[in-house]
Records
---
Amino acid sequence: DTAVSQTPKYLVTQMGNDKSIKCEQNLGHDTMYWYKQDSKKFLKIMFSYNNKELIINETVPNRFSPKSPDKAHLNLHINSLELGDSAVYFCASSRGLAGRDGTQYFGPGTRLLVL
Amino acid sequence: AQKVTQAQTEISVVEKEDVTLDCVYETRDTTYYLFWYKQPPSGELVFLIRRNSFDEQNEISGRYSWNFQKSTSSFNFTITASQVVDSAVYFCALKPGNNRKLIWGLGTSLAVNP
């Protein structure tokens, strides 16, 4: 029944490690997103894919790499984790890009803590 | 400039009070969408409402109501007879024209105390 799911929900890791977060949506949407929410609750778009094509690529360190194997999945791989990467990462999806189709539905978030 | 301002950082009310969360937006586009999302203490982001720029009708859903006024570029959210379960951070967001990105406000943290 879950519309947008993310795994893992919590991730605690050491600085320098590499980790991945997975996202899946069963809404039949064409567009998926990754957001970072910092401790002050500010939501920042990182990436977006539309039909497996990268369409938003914000200024994030190139240690972050998204990958969309198909329309229903968007994963986020982070290399050489740093303390400042600690945040909540949200995956979202929308039917399309514009208009009412641009309404975004969010996953439960992945709480990443880098020690 | 395209921007969303939620001037109230934190609001605290007592249960059963009515509370209004303000949202002021800026855009030069004539076509745009406005959104409200709720983030309860459990952390998920829940979509509440979408409104397009051509529809200024107010919306009511149970205890929630939204007032969209293009003249003041505002899309305010009122909770009537607030309950403890309404405690959350509420975000207002704007999607102008064919912009691919949502422009987010900084959120208003609402605490409803028993």
Note: Residues 32 and 104 of chain A are 9 Å apart (CA to CA).
---
Amino acid sequence: QQQVKQSPQSLIVQKGGISIINCAYENTAFDYFPWYQQFPGKGPALLIAIRPDVSEKKEGRFTISFNKSAKQFSLHIMDSQPGDSATYFCAARNGGSQGNLIFGKGTKLSVKP
Amino acid sequence: GAGVSQSPRYKVAKRGQDVALRCDPISGHVSLFWYQQALGQGPEFLTYFQNEAQLDKSGLPSDRFFAERPEGSVSTLKIQRTQQEDSAVYLCASSLGDRGMAGELFFGEGSRLTVL
């Protein structure tokens, strides 16, 4: 059972456009929702994260929107740049000391110049 | 070093061979995780250490997989009698606090294992 569902699988955006990646979850015990960025041959790196007590978090061009009632969250990349081309993973963590990060399957983003 | 270091970066093994993958976490980080990332997929949890204690090994796919962190720093993931389905990138991550804290995970670049 896939606990974090991510879409789309791939995304092509023109330079300057907005990239939007969506994730959904079922487990209401999840209490931490990070997004990781991964370049080929590299490990994932934390991009931005949110807790369920806020509906939006913005850091520079990156924004997480969180809808607790719908159990959905999304990443928006404003003014997308070719350097943003990478694979993006949403993740969720089960609250408490036994929680692990559970990752979505990833979205491969290509930003065309 | 400044980041999480993993070695070897690439390993080719014949089916049935044993392999050992090393992770050197960021100094002082309490938590250490191993993840398996198949091609085109997200990382999947294998096991978790808090200092030298292996607190969770629920993600290890079989008893051929074994991990240790004897002194609470460097960790080794060992795979015995490798099978083709073990081919993947094995990622190590560390964080400053224990798993219950929503701390950032710092990932290494991974060890890519190919089993022929």
Note: The radius of gyration of chain B is 13 Å.
